[in-house]
Amino acid sequence: MATTVKIVSRPAGFQRQTYLMGVVSGLWVTFRHLMNNWIGNLFGRRKQTDIATLSYPEEKMPYPARNRGLHRLMKRDDGEVRCVACMMCPTVCPAHCITIVPEEAPDGRIEKRPRIFEIDELRCVVCGLCVEACPCDAIRMDTGIHASPTLRRADAILDKEALLSHADKSTAVQGGVGPFWRIRVKG
Amino acid sequence: MDFLAYGSPGFLAVTAAAKSIFFVLMFTLPLAGILTWMERRQSAMMQDRLGPNRANLGRFRFWGILHFVADAVKMIFKEDFIPPKANKFLFGLAPVLAVAPVFIASAIVPFGAPLCAGQLLDKVPAGTCAAPVDLQGAQLNAGLLFYFAISSLSVYGAALAGWASHNKWALMGGLRASSQMMAYEVTMGMAIMAMFLLYGTLDPGAMVNAQGDMPWQWGIVGIPQIVAFVLFLTSAIAESKRTPFDIPEGESEIVGYFVEYSGMRFGMFYLGEFVEIIVSSAVIITVFFGGWRFPGAEYLAAHLPNLVFVLLSVALWSLKVFLFCAFQLLIRWTLPRLRADQLLKLGWQRLLPISIANVVLAAGWILLRR
Predict the structure, then answer these.
(1) Which residues contact A126 (CB under 8 A, 6 or more apart)?
(2) Residues A44, A113: one domain?
(3) How far apart are CA B64 and CA B37, in angstroms?
(4) What residues are paired with A60 via a beta bridge?
(5) In this complex, is the C-beta atom of A46 within 8 Å of any C-beta atom belonging to chain B?
(6) What is the C-alpha separation between A187 and A183, in angstroms, rounded?
(7) What's the count of helices (H) and strands (E) in chain B, helices before strands?
(8) Are residues A42 and A98 part of one domain?
(9) How does DSSP assign B156-221, residue by residue?
(10) Domain membership flag for residue A93
(11) Which residue of B18, B66, B346, B368 pairs with B55 in a disulfide if CB–CB is 3.0 to 4.6 A?
């Protein structure tokens, strides 16, 4: 097979062929960045530098408002759990991580309430379908935190009390506030 | 104490040893260590990153400078692996051959104003000292020739490392290193030849003495000198095998002649590279940027105790060398790597003719100024 050679035209002119001015202008660009970042960093003016690095444990990026975090159960105005044990979420859950054992509600206004409501955070795939399926806004994933690592597997199964402990917490903003995940916050 | 009388061979030997040890232990090695950190930190800053800033002693972070201590500790405790089919003797010898010549070559660099023996606390104006001790490991007439002769030995380190590793990529790296270093040594010698003609001496100490205190009295002023400076800098970077001339290493294609090395043996190649930067910077400062000389040196020499003045000159010389090392790092992190054929073409067909023409230009310059 005959090889085909493509002749690439090189830049013409003495100044461009020597690359000297190209080298100098390239050095100037990197030098400008170096000085800008170095001096800004030295005097604690990180915001004015071009540095994109986030020093993770000290600085954290806020999650977007629609982030799916750890589950929580919501409460009614009288402090009782909103869940009516309709079994929609364990039905839709693709990972089968939700366990609900219903019991009869004592006050008579609703039929059932969950005696046991457990979510196995090790099995959860964080898809958010349980939140979609819930007809009475009882389960949400808007805490903005992760399932914390545990030493024993059993500790990763959250019961009703653990899920209710975040009942007042929410990062969700009605209507959303746009893409603000590039803003740094001191954590 | 006749053995150690001023000017006797014993005195020269003892002071030369003391100066060399001081230079290597107090200047070259710490600066090489800091440069390993600085290379990462400076490149990070150039690329809008933060870089290594976490090696701390309790609450003291020192901007991460202590990373080089952590690196050294890590390298010492890593496994020292020798490939089963490698030539064990040459494999162990190669890192030594890569590092030792650079340290030896640094002996000719003058790193400060001359100490005045016996008058350390007196004010000694320039040129009036009865018993000066030059701060230079070895005062050789051959000076820079010695530097070339010794530093070109480090090619054996690279070539032997490539050969002894019993690895094709390493061998290729060693071959590339030797062809590259031969190509650029000639240019380097020719660039210095022009400076030799202009100074009339090869002794770096005499070269520094021939330059003045003010920047416009330094060696770089004048057309042949600027050309010689660019040529010398280019070949010095090629000699230290760093980007844009890092085809012997080329970590994205062949890892290079030290691909089989681990632990502190690799650390020696790595350290040698940075020592080479320092020594080449020191030689460039000596030849082109006035050595230890700085504006106001003559006035301060007459108004400060000799010891204080000498320490000041050493500090300012160190600052010059440090800044030039930073400049070399800037070049390393700005320019892309050349291809092997481009590199040899640049060396033999471009830089060498220019350097020969520059020697002729320098000779004509001398003729005109006479």
Answers:
(1) A68, A141
(2) no
(3) 8
(4) A185
(5) no
(6) 12
(7) 14, 2
(8) no
(9) HHHHHHHHHTT-HHHHHHHHHHHHHHHHHHHHHHHHHHHHHHHHS---HHHHHHHS-SSGGGSTT-
(10) yes
(11) B66
Long-range contacts of A155-161 (CB under 8 A, 24+ apart): A156/A120, A156/A121, A156/A122, A157/A118, A157/A119, A157/A120, A157/A121, A157/A122, A158/A71, A158/A118, A158/A119, A158/A121, A159/A116, A159/A117, A159/A118, A160/A73, A160/A81, A160/A114, A160/A116, A160/A117, A160/A118
What residues of chain B lie within 8 A of the CB of A23, using their CB? 334-335
| C-alpha to C-alpha distance for B200 and A171, rounded to whole angstroms | 77
Q: What is the ipTM of this complex?
A: 0.84
Contact flag B50-A31 (C-beta cutoff 8 Å)? no
Total domains present in chain A: 2
Residues A83 and A136: their CA atoms lie apart, in Å, by 7
B61 compared with B107, residue with greater pLDDT = B107
Q: For the beta carbon of residue B352, count every other beta carbon within 10 angstroms.
A: 18
Amino acid sitting at position B119: Q
Within 8 A of B245 by CB-CB distance, chain A residues are: none
Tell me if B334 and A27 make a contact (CB, 8 A cut-off).
yes
pLDDT at position A172, please? 53
Q: Which residues of B touch A41 (CB under 8 A)?
A: 45, 50
How far is C-alpha B17 from the chain's CA centre? 19
pTM, rounded to two decimals: 0.82
In a domain, A184, yes or no: no
Q: Tell me the pLDDT tens digit for each residue of B107-127.
A: 888 888 888 877 777 777 777
Nearest residue of A to residue B326, measured between CA atoms: A31
What confidence tens digit (pLDDT) does each residue in B199-232 have? Answer: 888 888 888 888 888 888 888 887 778 889 999 9
Q: Which residue of B has its CA nearest to A51?
A: B48
Is A178 within a domain?
no
Q: Is A25 on the interface with B (CB under 8 A)?
A: no
CB of A23 within 8 Å of a chain B CB? The answer is yes
Is residue A8 assigned to a domain?
no
Residue A21, class by beta-carbon neighbours within 10 Å (0-12 exposed, 13-18 middle, 19+ buried)? exposed
Q: Return the pLDDT at B127.
A: 72
A174 contacts chain B (CB < 8 A): no
Q: What is the DSSP letter of B110?
A: E
Q: Do B47 and A33 touch (CB under 8 A)?
A: yes
Q: Is A3 on the interface with B (CB under 8 A)?
A: no
How many angstroms separate the CA atoms of A17 and A12, rounded?
A: 7
